[in-house]
Amino acid sequence: MDKLRITGGRRLSGKLRVSGAKNSALPILAGTLLSAEPVKISRAPHLHDVTTMIELLGTLGADVTIDEKLNVEVSACKLDQLLAPYELVKTMRASFLVLGPMVARFGEAQVSLPGGCAIGSRPVDQHLKGLEALGAEVVVEDGYVKASAPRGLTGTQVYMDIVTVGGTENLMMAACLARGVTTLQNCAREPEIVDLGRFLQTLGANISGLGTSTIEIEGVDALHGGTYAVMADRVEAGTYLIAAAATGGDIELIDVDPATLGAVLEKLQHAGAQIQTGETTVSLDMGGSRPIAVDIETSPYPGFPTDMQAQFMALNAVADGTASIKENIFENRFMHVQELNRLGASIELHGQSMAVVHGVDRLKAAPVMATDLRASSSLVIAALVAEGTTTIDRIYHIDRGYETIEEKLQQLGGAVQRVS
Ligand code: UD1
Q1: Ligand 1 atom, smallest distance to 188 CA
Q2: From ligand 1's centre to the CA of 304, what distance in Å?
Q3: What are the CA-CA distances from residue 265 to residues 270, 274, 307, 323 (Å)?
Q4: What's the rounded Cα separation, in Å, for the pair 160 and 162?
Q5: How many CA atoms lie within 13 A of 326 on its CB side?
Q6: pTM surpassing 0.85?
Q7: Which of 66, 187, 274, 366 could lock onto 168 through a cystine, CB 3.0 to 4.6 A?
Q8: Contacts (Cβ under 8 Å, ≥6 apart) of 30
Q9: Of 12, 4, 416, nearest in space to 246 by CA
């Protein structure tokens, strides 16, 4: 099993191109099932989760080809089976996003209940409630969600009880082919939802209200083919910015959308970073100084993202002062605390959703273990600052979400090696 070996103490410095967004590529690939014509996706990141989604599309019977520039072309003219098996869905929760498109287009789908990162129970009740409102009959049997709508879906008003990214995406895709108008209320407003919506519009979907909490979709008979480029990965971008800040470094990110990074850039400024943004660039300069502790509270977009909570905790671990971190989205997303403390951090947990981080002068290398995707990137950041050489085990978690992380960090001057 691969490990990362990181020798800390070097300031990250240099220029980095940001990859396409995993959390946008996954729903977009699921959305290709809505069209019978070829759909070409560019800038999908080269990541394990993306490969899993491509494998799932292939298992369902779609033709998937990847060219030399890593453009993915999906042709789902017909499918061989309308069942997404446990083996694929258990490894990645986003596989559940094929449910809406399949029911909408084929009137039937069976999808295993999802797995993914072990960061809480993560139910799918809102996805199911919405599909039922659109006229699908839904049963949960033998670990599978079985949905059918032999006469198609019908537009309606759906109020989601909680703000859910995946729920909004699944229902938005299903509604594209429903008869009449669907109004989704209390929608998530994440940039990845806007990106998915723009992709669907490229294929001829009628969607308005993207980026607001009310999305209206007027169903069409069919979506056509098209070509779409996935947006930049704001979580990857934020992770490298936080890593650079923790090491006192200076970096410039290119091919990024600064507007999607608002809350993170503001917190980095409070931590003492000089930030400059261009149309598609963000630069950060810490001027060699130690970060200042900053309180964080996660909330749905445009609030501070839960996907960057762990990384900011690593920054606070070496900051001057004490900071509180409150996690409001997931119930079990502090698994990195124990590992950060192994590296010499001083973090106390107060219940399941609050951590208090007392910044320390220095961290010291130790063997640590990645527990979930974003938790593992916090260990990478801590290791980049720690004295000595840290080995991070189970980095398959990192490979789910970060394209060639060791190469990108090496490019910034980090002493990082992948070993097996
Ligand atoms: C997506 C992101 C993930 C991010 C999360 C929150 C993808 C592939 N993944 O995950 O990286 O951390 O958004 O920004 O885009 N919930 C319910 N019932 C539902 C659906 C969700 O109770 O039907 C709860 C979940 O348990 C969780 C919260 O709502 O506590 C948010 O989940 P959701 O926004 O759906 O996250 P995902 O779409 O799974």
Answers
A1: 34
A2: 15
A3: 9, 10, 14, 17
A4: 5
A5: 5
A6: yes
A7: 187
A8: 53, 94, 95, 97, 98, 100, 101, 169, 173
A9: 12
Q: Label residues 134-168 b or e (16+ Cβ within 10 Å = b).
A: bbbebeeeeebbbbbbeebbbbbebebeebbbbbb
Q: Tens of pLDDT along 290-320?
A: 999 999 999 999 999 999 999 999 999 999 9
Q: Is 307 in the pocket of ligand 1 (CB under 6 A)?
A: yes
**Sole residue written with tokens 């089976």:** 81
CA distances from 144 to 111, 112, 147 (A): 5, 4, 10
Residues forming a β-bridge with 147: 109, 138
| DSSP per-residue letters across 299-345 | -STTSB-GGGHHHHHHHHHTSBSEEEEE--S-SS--THHHHHHHTT-
Q: Indicate if the pLDDT at residue 345 is higher than 70.
A: yes
Q: Which of 164, 297, 333 to mutate for ligand 1's pocket (most ligand atoms within 8 Å of CB)?
A: 164
Write down how long the chain is: 420
Give dist(CA 9, CA 373) in Å, integer.
Answer: 24
Amino acid identity of 243?
A
Write out pLDDT tens, residues 146-195. 999 999 999 999 999 999 999 999 999 999 999 999 999 999 999 999 99
